[in-house]
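Table S2 (text version). Query chain:
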Amino acid sequence: MKKELKIFAIAVAFAGFAGGIDGILANYFKEAYDVTAFQRGFIEFPRELPGVLGAFVISALGFMGDIRIAVISQLLMAIGMMILGLFTPGFGLMLVFLFIFSLGQHIYMPLHDGIAVSLSEKGREGKTLGTLSGIKVASAMVASVVTFAGFRYELFSFKNPVIPFLLVAVTSVLGAGAMIYLCRYVKVPHRDSLPGKIKLRKEYRYYYALAILNGVQKQIMIVFGPWVLVDLLGAGADHMSLLVIMTSLLGMIFLPFIGRCIDSFGIRKILYADAFSFIFVYALYGMLCSAIIAGAVSLKVGMILGGTMFIFDRMSMNLGMVRTMYLRNIAVDKNELTQTISLGISMDHVVAISCAMLSGYIWSSVGPQYVFYFTAALSVLNLLIAKTVEINE
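Corresponding structure-token output:
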């Protein structure tokens, strides 16, 4: 691995630490603010709105180059988490700093893939992206181990200060420092070669469609999959952290494997695998919810099945790196890669925000199982796209 990639891998490890906190956010909202399912869906508006804005922010800051924008993203994450960790502010103010943290997260998302691919050797993009994604997951696992031990042995709580949030703030600052160091080795392209405005291209129409579908699927994975465990089964923060640890351990192996599979078997086959995984996971989630509501499963069995679905769901989302490789394959201009990824993220978040609020309503008024059945049915569109797309293979 060349020096630039090694430095970036260190930055990815620091940035990835925040990923281990996702598993306890549902508990944070529940225990610190006692939110309902409808409020849980509403929280996703300020949390996911930065995903819509991310493409515009990256476009506006395009003259700085991807790495310097990544520095800003890490500092925003640090500010948001530091305030939440130190003060646990009132519900309205919490949403403001959650927005700031989330803005940093969502700016960084397309930059991670864009920087990773740009630093890769030709023909090894999938392997490099998989390896770096594995490092990110490993770092998230470390965060999960810390939070699991802290909550299990009552060293942490959701009263002030929230120590895991403060740790995220510190590691985000360290990640920014590593990115600054990386700038010494990677020249910023001339401004004229950078995308200065958002472009919609008909050549990318299937990529946009995949991004929009991902918005629905990701929202269910992040919000309502864990909510089955937290709300219907009463799982605590230590249980959720343990599940993230298990997911991370598997992801450390699975992500590099998927990267190699993309290089070896081609993009289309992995797109098919991506589609089938979503249909399978969400159909099972729906059946599990029906069984829990009907009292057909005990709490212990429900926790085992729910935890298994949680892990399968996270593994399914890891297949999403194939979208970046598909875009790389069809890109009209390689300099548009990060810009187009960020635009795709913005599209998926427009859908995700609407989906979160609608799903919260469906959960409360109709039944949680229908949230998952609808998502499983929608995922059939992934199959149609996988069959239709033209790939330069």
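Notes on Table S2: The CA atoms of residues 43 and 95 lie 7 Å apart. Residues 190-195 have pLDDT under 50 and may be disordered.
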